Amino acid sequence: MTTNSLMIKEKQFKKIAITIKTTNACNMRCKHCYHALVGYDNIFLDIEKAKQIIDLAIADGYTIIDVLYMGGEPTLWGLDNFISFLKYQDFLKKTKSIIFKNTLQTNGLLLDDNWYSILREYNFNLGISFDGDHNNILREKSEVVLSNINNLKKNQLNFRLLCVETSKTIDNLVDTYKWFNAHGLDFKILPLFISGEASKHLELELDPDKYVDNFMKAYKFWIYDLNCNIDVSTFREVLSLREQTICNHRGATCVNNRISISPTGDIYPCGRPYTDDFNLGHINSFASISEIFNSVKYKRLVEIYNQRLKKCSGCEVFSSCLGGCISDAILEGYYSEPNNPYCIRTKKMILALYDFNKNLYEKISNDEKLLDYINPRVAKILKHVCIK
User: Fold this and answer.
1) Closest to 71 (Cα-Cα) out of 122, 117, 108, 114
2) Residue 24 and residue 73: Cα distance in Å, rounded?
3) Is the pTM of this model over 0.85?
4) pLDDT at residue 271, as a whole number
5) How many whole angstroms separate alpha carbon 310 and alpha carbon 95?
């Protein structure tokens, strides 16, 4: 391939992720909500500002734009605003050949037939915050949300549930998996972070050892569950973790390829809460995404991140963790330093996965017939990796 061809191909597939925080307002008050750090004001993002952040990306030649809608509760922005913004995407698809991918992170409370129609038309991916059989511990209005989730399933929309585990639920993680599997609902496991409202409920804080022990118990159950009919993305992703294996779903890969706009039009590195130190400026101050990435404040963020990576680089699980998620570290107040609660928990989990996965891969490599006793979804993955 010629140099010119490579340049054309790179330009054609230049990609950026944009988080649009439509509002800080929320129609729930969950016990663990990190958003309490910034409050629940009723400011809504101006639709023209939402379009403007897309224009900044196009000014830099980005042709693939992943849009994540967050809040507060993003659906409070209203269906009319969503439709207006999506119609603008249609215009850009036709006039500039821009490719869009849309993802909505929602509590699911307001979803109805009108929403289903738009979500289907624009092929949305959805993340619904719902904790399965123990949803009432942290969240409100479980019956309404579950009904809407079942309607999403009936409408064959793309979604998965985000399930938060706490000290009150972690001992029952196998049963939680069984609940999701029985209901045919894909889900992801998230450990509780002590931040925001969760700081007022320290009784929910997870013990790292107990979390890892129960995670591994549920993971092993999933590996050998011949009746599994759902995707557990957390388990599927860590199935690749073996010693010295880089696992790309982990790590702070958002640096220099994600940006976020707040309801006030201010620019932040991502949609998670940041202090004012990471307010990069108002959108009207920039003419392109590259100007944002080259700003003094963004460069400071990158420098702090690089310093943290140097401190992490000697860790025995660095090749898998890659320093972890910046936002997760910030939520627990340890941005520039390793060995925060998130770090300790993750390291313990990765080391446990190294041992189990390495042994599993060796067994399958030596005896292909063992795949008959493994979760068919797992067997499909292992067959490609282990069987020569």
Assistant:
1) 108
2) 7
3) yes
4) 74
5) 44
